[in-house]
Design goal:
- This protein has 7 helices and 11 strands.
- With 211 residues, it is α/β, with parallel strands linked by helices.
- The protein folds into 2 domains: 6-94 and 179-210, Periplasmic binding protein-like II (D-Maltodextrin-Binding Protein, domain 2, 3-Layer(aba) Sandwich), CATH 3.40.190.10; 96-177, D-Maltodextrin-Binding Protein, domain 2, CATH 3.40.190.10.
- The protein has a 6-stranded mixed β-sheet. A 5-stranded mixed β-sheet has the order 8-7-9-6-10.
- The longest helix has 18 residues, at 193-210.
- The protein is elongated and about 60 Å long.
- It starts with 5 loop residues before the first strand and ends with a helix.
- It binds 1-O-pyrophosphono-5-O-phosphono-alpha-D-ribofuranose.
- 1-O-pyrophosphono-5-O-phosphono-alpha-D-ribofuranose (PRP) binds at residues 140-143, 156-163.
Length: 211
């Protein structure tokens, strides 16, 4: 973990686009993030940093085990994974909500079936309310589940609300507010404090400047 480039785990996909202006404002080298190729490991900052590209769900795992020193992850993913990590900075991007939703005007049964990509978050949410729910994991297109009888409710992220609206679903409760955070491996955060600070501090200023 010590020595060599600082390894930063970056989620592939849409959050990268929102991340780029922040990194640029922080004076960080974003070129390697957008190189048009399939390399999963890319050096930046003259070899002092390397980015590893992962599925968003895998970022906390790599950081928890020290395969990456820092990472970029949504609070929704962190709530579900419960990895043992630091979360030193909220980037204020990727803002959305984790909600319970269901068909408009539907009467919910006492033991609802709930489809979700976030089974632990959903199970905890209903357990806290004293509702005995049957949670069913689905990998995507979650809004479909109530439309075809797989589930009565869903727990999913809502950003604009367009997907819910276009599928005749409505928000019933908010489970958590979500944004994108910088996460850090606990050991690396101490052992590589100076290198991590050199990234975090300009990023923090970029975030504050954006607010
Ligand atoms: C996410 C989420 C919702 C949608 C919410 O899905 O699961 O379906 O975005 O956004 P909105 O409120 O702005 O409509 P994603 O596009 O990641 O695809 P998925 O269904 O494959 O998870």
């Amino acid at each position: 973990m010590t020595g060599g480039p600082l390894t930063v785990a970056v989620p592939k996909g849409r959050i990268l686009k929102a991340l780029a202006p922040l990194l640029e404002r922080a004076g960080l080298d974003v070129g390697p993030l957008f190189a048009d190729d399939r390399r999963l490991l890319r050096e930046a900052e003259g070899g002092r940093v390397r980015y590893v590209f992962l599925k968003p769900d895998d970022v906390p795992t790599y950081v928890e085990y020290g395969a990456a020193d820092l990472g970029i992850s949504g609070r929704d993913t962190l709530l579900e994974k419960r990895a043992d990590l630091y979360t030193p900075l909220d980037l204020g991007i990727g803002k959305c909500r984790l909600v319970v939703a269901g068909p408009r005007g539907q009467k919910v049964p006492d033991v609802p079936r709930v489809a979700t990509k976030y089974p632990r978050v959903a199970a905890d949410h209903f357990a806290k309310k004293g509702v005995q729910a049957e949670v069913i994991y689905v990998g995507g297109s979650v809004e479909l589940a109530p439309l075809v009888g797989l589930a009565h409710l869903i727990v999913d992220v809502v950003e604009t609300g367009k997907t819910l609206q276009e599928n005749d679903l409505e928000v019933m409760e908010t489970v958590a507010e979500v944004s994108t955070l910088v996460i850090a491996n606990r050991a690396a955060y101490k052992l590589r404090a100076a290198e991590i600070r050199a990234i975090l501090e300009p990023l923090r200023r970029a975030v504050e400047g954006a607010g």
